[in-house]
What we know:
alpha/beta; Beta-Lactamase; Alpha-Beta Plaits; TIM Barrel; eleven-stranded mixed sheet; five-stranded antiparallel sheet; 23 strands; 23% strand
Amino acid sequence: MPKKSSPSSDQDLHLSLLRAYIDSANDGIFVVCDEMKFHVANRLLVSWLGESEAVLTTHNRRLPITYFFSDDKTRRLFVERFKEVLTGNPVRFQCRLQPKHGEPRWVEINMNKVGIEAGELVIGVVRDTTEHMEMMAVVQHYARYDDLTGLVNRREFEQKLKELFDDAKRQHSRHVLLYLDLDQFKLINDTCGHMAGDELLRQLSSQTREIIRFNDTFARLGGDEFGVLLEDCSTDLALGIAEKIRQTIGAIRFRWKDRSFDIGVSIGACAITEKSESPADILSNADAACYVAKDNGRNRVQLYFGGQDCFSKRAEMDWVARLTRAMEDKRLCLYYQKIFPLNAAKANAEYFEVLLRLVDETGTIVTPGVFLPSAEKYNLMPAIDRWVVSHVLSRHDEWWARRAKIEKATDEINISCSINLSGASLNDDRFPAFLQEQIASSQIPPQALCFEITETVAITNLQRALSFMRELKEIGCHIALDDFGSGMSSYAYLKSLPIDILKIDGALIKNVAQDQTDLAMVESINRIGHLMGLQTVAEYVENDEILKKLRDIDVDFVQGAGLHRPELL
C-alpha cells in the first residue's frame, strides 16, 4: 500500500508550490504587516530593491517598504493608500521606486488586505511601468515643446498666457508679451531650402534663449514667429529686453554653404494687465504691433499703445480670422448684378457679373470692399478665387441647364457670366490648371464665361497676365480688363493684351453728368476701345442722367445700382 503523507508534509508541499508560484511571477509581489514591514518578497521584487529577502524579513529587523521610496511625497502617497487598504478597500496607484542599491523605476502597485490567524496582512503586486511612463513623458514633451528648436510650442505658450492673464486680473500684477517675426526668413527658405531655414531657427533659438530671464517663457509659435512672456515685468524693462533680443538676432550672420545672410526681426510688445480683455486679445494686439513694426521699416520694436496704426492693423487681422472662419462655416455667398446692353441687337442676351458677399456672425451681409483688402494683404485671395470659381461652375440647377439647352439648339451663346480674379491667383502657378479643370467639368460652355482682371493687376504682372489670358482665350473664354482708367492707364499696352471687353472705372463714370473732363476721358476710352475692336462697359451707373450721357457717346454696356441692385445668385 502507498505510504500516506503527514499533514506537515502536505503543508510543506503547499508552501513550496506557493513559493515557486510567486517567484515565477512576472510582477513583484510582497506581503507586509500593518506596520508596512516585509514578511515576504518574491525573487523579482528582491532584485529590484537590491536587497536579499533575508535582509528584508529578518525577525526584529524587518525593513518597511517605505524605505525604498526616496522622497517624502511618494512615502506620503504610499502611507495614504496603505491606510485605505487597512479599511478594506483595494487600491491601485502609480509611484516611483528608488532603492539605494537598485535601479529607480516607475511602478504600479495593487494592494489588498487579507486576514489570517496571526493578524491582518497586506498583499501587494508591483508592476514595472517604466517603459510606458518614459513613452508617455516623450509624448507629453512633444505635446508641449517644438521638435525643431526645443522651445515651448504654441499650445503651451497660450496656456501660460492664460495663467498670466488670470494672475493679472487677480493680483493686479503686470506682465508683457513680445511677438517676434523674422524679416528675412522667407528669402533664406526660398534660396537655400528648408534645411537652411531649420538650421537658422535652431541657431536663433539657442542664442536668443540666453537673453530670456529664467522665469520667462520663450516659445516658437509657428514658422518664423516666436513669442516671449515676461513675468512681473514693467513696460520699460520689457522694451529693453526686446531691444536686446533685436540686437542679438540682428548680429547673427547666417552662413549656408557659399552664401551668407543678415537677419532682422520685428517685435511687437503688449502689456498684460488687469485691464486686458482676453488672452486672445493680448496676442492679437502684440501681433498687430509687430506688423506695424514691419510696415515702419522692419527690424524694430513696436509697443501696442492703441494708436490708429495699431487699431488699423488689428482690424485687418481680425478680418483675416473672421474671413477664415466664414469660409470654414460656409458663410460666403454669391450675388449677381445684371449688365445691360445699350445696343438693341443684343437686347435678348443675358449678361451679369458674379459678386462675392460674406454673412457675418450676426447674419449681416458684408460687401467685399470691407474684407477683401485684408484678404489681399494676408494672401487669402487664391483660396477665395477658387471658392468662387468652383461654386459658380459647379452649379447644375434648372437656370443653367435651360440656357445650356438653348445655346446648344441655336449654336449661339446668349449669356455671359463675369467672374473676377485677383492678382494673387495670376501669380499662382497651379491656378490656370485648376481653372481649366473646373471649366472642362462644368456644363457651362467656355464661351459663356468672362474673367475680369483689373488694369492694375494686369500691368503689374504683365507677362504673367499675357500668358494667363492667352490660355483662357484658347479654350474660348472671354477676358475683360476691369477698372480701366483708375490711374495707370496707358493705351499703348492695350494692343498687346488679348482682351475682349474694356470695363471703364466707376470713379470716372459717376461724375460724367456734371464733369466735362470725366466725360471726355470716358469718351476717349470708349472710342479707343471701339477702334481696337473691344466692347466697352461702364460701371457704377447710378441714375438716368449718367445713363443718357453714356448712351450719347455709344458705350456698349452699362452696369450699376441705378439699373439693378445685386441679388442672391
